Amino acid sequence: YSGSSDAGVIAFSDGTSDTAYRSGQIIYDHNGNTMDFRTNGNYIRLKIDDDGDVTIGGVDFQYPKALNVQGPTGSVLALRNWDTTTYAQDTCTGIELSLKTGNTNNQDGACEIRAFKENGTNGDSARGLNFWTAGNGGSPTERMRINSAGHISFCAGSGIHADAHVWIGGGEAS
Question: Which of 108, 171, 174, 160 is nearest to 136 (CA)?
Answer without folding.
Answer: 108
